[in-house]
TrEMBL record:
<dbReference type="InterPro" id="IPR050397">
    <property type="entry name" value="Env_Response_Regulators"/>
</dbReference>
<dbReference type="Pfam" id="PF00027">
    <property type="entry name" value="cNMP_binding"/>
</dbReference>
<keyword id="KW-0805">Transcription regulation</keyword>
<dbReference type="Pfam" id="PF13545">
    <property type="entry name" value="HTH_Crp_2"/>
</dbReference>
<dbReference type="InterPro" id="IPR036388">
    <property type="entry name" value="WH-like_DNA-bd_sf"/>
</dbReference>
<dbReference type="InterPro" id="IPR014710">
    <property type="entry name" value="RmlC-like_jellyroll"/>
</dbReference>
<dbReference type="GO" id="GO:0003700">
    <property type="term" value="F:DNA-binding transcription factor activity"/>
</dbReference>
<dbReference type="InterPro" id="IPR012318">
    <property type="entry name" value="HTH_CRP"/>
</dbReference>
<protein>
    <submittedName>
        <fullName>Transcriptional regulator</fullName>
    </submittedName>
</protein>
<keyword id="KW-0238">DNA-binding</keyword>
<dbReference type="InterPro" id="IPR018488">
    <property type="entry name" value="cNMP-bd_CS"/>
</dbReference>
<dbReference type="GO" id="GO:0005829">
    <property type="term" value="C:cytosol"/>
</dbReference>
<dbReference type="InterPro" id="IPR036390">
    <property type="entry name" value="WH_DNA-bd_sf"/>
</dbReference>
<dbReference type="GO" id="GO:0003677">
    <property type="term" value="F:DNA binding"/>
</dbReference>
<keyword id="KW-0804">Transcription</keyword>
<dbReference type="InterPro" id="IPR000595">
    <property type="entry name" value="cNMP-bd_dom"/>
</dbReference>
<feature type="domain" description="Cyclic nucleotide-binding">
    <location>
        <begin position="17"/>
        <end position="120"/>
    </location>
</feature>
Length: 229
């Protein structure tokens, strides 16, 4: 049990929301967390489910999406370790605003809202960390909305690939998304996104390997997306 708690503490320490907290506070968060595992394709939760927990992704990857009344899906975000889901639910307890699906086999930690509120009463600094994380979420959503106004589809595809690559310093970065999922994230048809991918491949910026996309020139994609810093 001690080794498991240590593993949980390491996972909590890697989350930006909790990284600045004292080790003892992170230990309490880890002790209150419950381990979860999900198979590829399994739903963690769906829109309008009770918003009763925060989820910390330890291994694997999950896709956050919304579904229209006609059944069409819009992929909003891909979360990999040490990412979190459900920050808003910790504050307002409202129903989930999006669905989440494991796109790889995943392990995670769930922190219930009740346990979180109990920890906040004893350690108010936790709330500061959550509010900081919410600020980052709002900035990301604002940027995505702005992209749909100012970027053409190819620019949005390039920016989506840059986001998915993250801070990976490797010369080549593999994105584990198929082109249908990429089309959902970029807000375009699969055919149009395929054309953009084909153009980028022809310029030597990336190549496709089955359901994966291997980025070979991240700098070129950043320029196409209008990212200057």
């Amino acid at each position: 049990m001690d080794s498991q708690l240590t593993d949980f503490e390491d996972a909590i320490a890697g989350v930006e929301m909790f990284a600045g907290l004292d080790p003892e506070v992170r230990r309490r968060i880890a002790a209150a967390a419950v381990p979860r595992t999900y198979r590829k394709g399994q739903l963690l939760f769906v829109e309008d489910d009770p918003g009763e927990s925060l989820v910390v992704v330890r291994r694997g990857a999950v896709a956050v999406f919304r579904t229209s009344t006609t059944g069409e899906r819009a992929l909003l975000h891909v979360v990999r370790p040490p990412g979190v889901l459900g920050e808003v639910a910790l504050l307002d307890g409202a129903p989930r605003s999006a669905s989440v699906e494991a796109i790889e086999n995943c392990s995670a930690l769930a922190l219930s809202r009740a346990a979180f509120l109990e920890l906040v009463h004893a350690n108010p600094r936790i709330l500061d960390s959550v509010l900081h994380a919410l600020g980052g979420l709002i900035r990301r959503l604002t940027e995505q909305n702005t992209d749909h106004v100012f970027l053409d589809l190819a620019g949005r595809v390039a920016k989506t690939l840059v986001r998915l690559a993250g801070d990976n310093p490797a010369a080549m970065v593999t994105v584990e998304l198929n082109q249908s999922q990429l089309a959902e994230m970029a807000g375009g048809s699969r055919q149009s996104v395929n054309q953009a991918i084909g153009t980028f491949a022809g310029r030597g910026w990336l190549r496709t390997e089955g359901r994966r996309i291997v980025i070979m020139d991240l700098s070129a994609l950043r320029r196409r997306a209008g990212i200057t810093n």
